[in-house]
Design goal:
Number of strands: 7
Distance between the termini: 78 Å
Strand order of the largest sheet: 2-4-5-7-6
Strand content: 15-25%
Low-confidence stretches: none
CATH architecture of the largest domain: 2-Layer Sandwich
CATH class of the largest domain: Alpha Beta
Structural class: alpha+beta
Radius of gyration: 29 Å
Oligomer: single chain
Number of helices: 8
Length: about 300
C-alpha cells in the first residue's frame, strides 16, 4: 500500500516536473529549430519566475533582436539597390537627357511651323507624346535612385486631385471612362505638393490604363482630425493574385509600356510622409487603391 502510494506520488511529481520544466524547455528547443528555418516567432509569455521563465524571456529578447537585425539588413540591401539605381540613373540622365531635350525642342519648332490642318500635324503631336513618355521614364529612374527630400507645406489634396483629373481629362474622355467624385470642399494637409501629385497621377493613370474599353473610376476623399484617406476604385481588368503582391516592387510591370517604377515610387513617397498605401484587386472585377496620409 505504502509502495503504491509512493509510486503514485512519484508519477504525479514526474508529471509536474515535466509540465513545469521539461515541457517549456522542449518548446524553446522547437522554437530554436523554427528560427533556423527562418521563422522568427516569439514564445508565449510565461508567469514562471524561475530559471525556465528567465530562459523564455531571454529567448524572446533574442528573437526580437534577430527580427530587428533582419529589418536592418533589408534596409541596407534596399539602400544598396537605391545607390546602384542612382548611379545608373545619373548615367542615363547624362547620356540621354540632353539629346532628348534637343529632339523635343526641335519637334516643338516643327509643330509651330505646321498648321493644325496639315497632314503631318498629328504625326508630330504623336512624336511629341512619345518623347514626353521617354522623359517621364527617365524621371522615374532619377526619382527612384536619388534620396527623397520632402518640401512640406500646407496643400489642399482636393485641389491636387482636381488638377490631376484635368491633366488626364483628354485620355479619360477618349476611352469613354466615367469619373465619379466624392470630395469635401477642401482637404488641407502638410505634404510635399509635387511628390504627392506624382503619386496621385501614377494611381489615376494606372486606373485609366486598366480600362482601355471604358469603365468607371470612383474617387472618394474622407478625413478626420488626424488623417486623410483617398480611395480610388476602377472597374478595369484587375490584377492577378500572383501579381498583386509584387505591384510595389521596382521594375515589376505587366504592361508593354513603362518600366515598372510608378507604384514603387508612389509607395516610397507615401511612406516617407508616414502614410500608408494598400491595393485590393480581383481579375475582371477592378482594383481599389487606398491612400492614407497624416494631416500634420
Amino acid at each position: 500500500m505504502v509502495t503504491a502510494l509512493i509510486f503514485g506520488i512519484g508519477i504525479v511529481l514526474s508529471f509536474l516536473l515535466f509540465w513545469r520544466y521539461t515541457r517549456p524547455i522542449q518548446e524553446v528547443a522547437k522554437a530554436a529549430q523554427r528560427i533556423t528555418e527562418g521563422n522568427l516567432e516569439e514564445l508565449p509569455p510565461t508567469r514562471q519566475r524561475d530559471e525556465v521563465g528567465l530562459l523564455v524571456e531571454n529567448f524572446n529578447k533574442m528573437v526580437k533582436q534577430l527580427r530587428e537585425r533582419r529589418k536592418l539588413e533589408e534596409r541596407l540591401k534596399e539602400a544598396e539597390r537605391f545607390s546602384a539605381i542612382g548611379q545608373l540613373a545619373s548615367g542615363i540622365a547624362h547620356e540621354v537627357r540632353n539629346p532628348l531635350n534637343f529632339i523635343s525642342l526641335s519637334i516643338d519648332h516643327i509643330k509651330d511651323k505646321l498648321s493644325p490642318n496639315d497632314e503631318f500635324h498629328s504625326l508630330v503631336s504623336n512624336m511629341k507624346g512619345e518623347i514626353s513618355r521617354i522623359s517621364r521614364m527617365i524621371e522615374d529612374l532619377l526619382d527612384y535612385g536619388r534620396p527623397l527630400r520632402l518640401n512640406l507645406r500646407e496643400t489642399d489634396l482636393v485641389f491636387l486631385l482636381e488638377e490631376v483629373l484635368t491633366l488626364t481629362r483628354e485620355r479619360i474622355d477618349a476611352q469613354g471612362i466615367m469619373v465619379k467624385n466624392s470630395f469635401p470642399l477642401k482637404s488641407p494637409c502638410m505634404v510635399d505638393m509635387d511628390k504627392i501629385e506624382t503619386c496621385l497621377m501614377n494611381i489615376i493613370v494606372n486606373a485609366i490604363q486598366a480600362m482601355p474599353l471604358g469603365g468607371e473610376l470612383t474617387i472618394r476623399v474622407s478625413q478626420s482630425d488626424l488623417f486623410i484617406e483617398v480611395e480610388f476604385e476602377d472597374t478595369g481588368e484587375g490584377i492577378r493574385p500572383e501579381d498583386l503582391e509584387k505591384v510595389f516592387e521596382p521594375y515589376f510591370t505587366t504592361k508593354e509600356l513603362g518600366i515598372g517604377l510608378g507604384l514603387a515610387i508612389t509607395k516610397r513617397i507615401i511612406e516617407e510622409h508616414k502614410g500608408e498605401i494598400s491595393i485590393k484587386s480581383h481579375p475582371n472585377q477592378g482594383t481599389k487603391v487606398k491612400v492614407k496620409l497624416r494631416r500634420q
